[in-house]
Amino acid sequence: MGTQTTTDLPAAAGAADHAQRDLLRLATAGSVDDGKSTLIGRLLYDTKSVLADQLSAVERATRARGGDGTAVDLALLTDGLRAEREQGITIDVAYRYFSTARRAFVLADTPGHVQYTRNMVTGASTAELAIVLVDARKGVLEQTRRHAALTALLGVPHVVLAVNKMDLVGFDEPTFTAIAREFADYAHVLGLPDVHAVPLSALDGDNVVVRSDRTPWYDGPTLLELLEQVPVGRDAAAEALRLPVQYVIRPRTPEHPDYRGYAGKVASGVVRVGDELRVLPSGRTSRVVGIDTFDGPLAEAAAPLSVTVRLADDLDVARGDVLVPAAEDVATGQDLVGTVCWLTERRSVPGARVLVRTGTRTVRALLREVDARLDVDTLTVEQWDPVDTVRTIDATDTSSDAAPRSLGLNAIGRVRVRLAEPVVLDDYATHRRTGGFLLVDPSDGSTLAAGMVGPTLLDRLAPVRADERDDDWLAGAGI
Amino acid sequence: MTTSTTTLPGATTTAAPPLTQLDALESEAIHVMREVAGEFERPVLLFSGGKDSIVMLHLARKAFWPAPVPFPVMHVDTGHNFPEVIAYRDATVAEHGLRLVVASVQDAIDDGRVVETPGGSRNPLQTVPLLDAITEHRFDAVFGGGRRDEEKARAKERMFSLRDEFGQWDPRRQRPELWDLYNGRHKPGEHVRVFPLSNWTELDVWRYIERERIPLPEIYYAHERDVFARDGMWLTAGGWGGPRPGEVVERRTVRYRTVGDMSCTGAVDSTAATVAEVIAEVAASRLTERGATRADDRASEAAMEDRKREGYF
């Protein structure tokens, strides 16, 4: 830390700035040895988000692990559960909070362990920015490519490549530049829209929060400056309105005997009083006559505000319906094609009866088939000719020539699902807030898979026919 | 060396200013509450008279306005509560026409369902009457004011936290939560704990209280009180079991950062008499609220996690 100026550390957020402060949700991606925990610890520590009692606990833990007590192991700040501390493993996603005068941050800390795909997908689903860590000594690895691909798959709009451990390569500019270029080329292939690279040392704090004088050749922002500068929110005015109805508010009180309002969070776009809206999937239309909140009526409400909308006509609108612009042609249907990440250890079963949850609607469905699978190691797509899985494949018959195409934990594949009722089928690529869905096991309610409707990265990558490949992932040797 | 390696046109434009952080947190919490009201048969909101549950009730009133809050509130009464807090609880319930369910630790002790611990803290004893009340009233969703910033085990908790028939939390059995899609399905006998304030910090709660002008029990603000020192905290003298011989009562100007049971909740020396002064004090504090004033969390490094596994919040 001797190389940094310590006088210009950002102060904890002051009350005066707070009212205007906005919120950035971000996710981290990095394997265990890349220094991810240290980087998060450094972000928390240098933004003064670690308080004295938490720090003394980490100091005790550092000493207990054989540290000499002079340097605190910041990585220990993020070890939450007993099993994690005792066994050195990481269970699922944790959420961390830090803030500056300009912005508050919710960080999804996704462990880079065996369960990386599932955890990264979870963290990335709500993130507006992903930090992809690489070790400057190792450069862009398959793991890095995998993290970038999952970031692209989930549609995270901003990516920061954190080239860590620059202290171990002597803060060598050509090393950084080569890594940044290689990643940028790859990001371009994946279609990642906005990528920045920062040379840093999480251990020493160079360019994390405090600008380092050990990288005089780097004139870009520190990691925290980037996190503060990235625009949050979307251009709501340019998006199409989607308002999934959560709850019908009918007070039946003396003050409000006839009130009927449709409560929901604006998922995308803007709703205005006077708008002609269509109720999907029924297709009936009406006009917005009021947007109500506890704090008074609004003329318009943009995503992601929670509001209550009143319509001119007494339509039958219920939880699960979606309000959309009347003039827009919105896709609805009962046949869903999408890319899923399989989240449980139970493999998918062709022909399984599942529930599909999309928006506020849950419908019964049949998992017809898996017709493609992304190999996250090689980033190639295995693809099969379409068949009617339900008719031709008996999942219990292992002697069948047609191998059951199923997905195991962490696998990513394309599925075809037949729904019992029509739903709104927004493409995830253009409707990140409404194009996501879950597959749920009706017997115990567990979440089987998370999916994205329509063409995704999977459809853009070059397909490889299954019979051209020589691998045995179906035999259980997959990821 | 420029850092912007690829930027597609139009990728980062923002027309309207984004929601402020507090508006975003409020909208998220309201969304979660409406999801629960839409998906569950019998939700209940835990209401202790502490600031987090007071904020939750405020958010519930916003979420369903102009209709009344469509679920009852439940207080787990340890029998050692601050009288000011009980008065606040009863006044609030009356003002908003709420239905109050009380789960009583004293009743559970009298029935022999739980046994008083030698240390005197009744905080961990709340689990049994809580679970008994959940069973008795067949509550299937239980709102709690827990925040992930409070404690490292809570940093791992989901917004929707499935509990088995024993109320147990199993961190390995948690459902991944993606996008805004909260999966509340559960088997009979199971229930779901719901934490709409997951993404709030202590300062967020205080700033929201200031912005919304939400009244709190007066013990949150500086006042004179008879207290005695134990384990580095100021505890309120009273019939619950303090002071012991050798512990000296003195009159000090203090306030509370958290409101729980008198037997385990400590006061801090403070002259902060207004919300703004409290915010300034909390912002400058170098201690977390639980590190400063909660005895139970100090019992072991995993005290909270262990209690949560048993069905505590």
Uncertain regions of chain B: pLDDT < 50 for 5+ in a row? 1-15, 295-301
Q: Which pair of chains has the greatest number of interface residues, and how are they split between the two chains?
A: A-B, 111 and 82 residues
* Strand line-up across the major sheet of chain A: 7-15-11-12-14-9-8
Q: Taking Cα atoms only, what radius of gyration of chain A do you get, to the nearest Å? A: 25 Å
What sort of overall outline of chain B do the alpha carbons produce when their principal axes are compared?
globular
Please tally the β strands of chain B and state the result.
11
| SS field, number of helical segments of chain B | 9
Count of helical segments of chain A? 10
Describe the sheet with the most strands of chain B: 6 strands, mixed
Number of domains of chain B: 2
Radius of gyration of chain B: 21 Å
Amount of beta strand of chain B: 15-25%
Largest sheet of chain A: 7 strands, antiparallel
Distance between the termini of chain A: 40 Å
Share of helix of chain A, binned = 10-25%
Oligomer: heterodimer
Instruction: Report the count of strand segments of chain A.
Output: 23
Strands in their spatial order, largest beta sheet of chain B: 4-3-2-5-7-6
Second rung of CATH, namely the architecture of the largest domain in chain B: 3-Layer(aba) Sandwich
Given helix and strand content, the structural type of chain A is: alpha+beta
Beta-strand percentage range of chain A: 25-35%
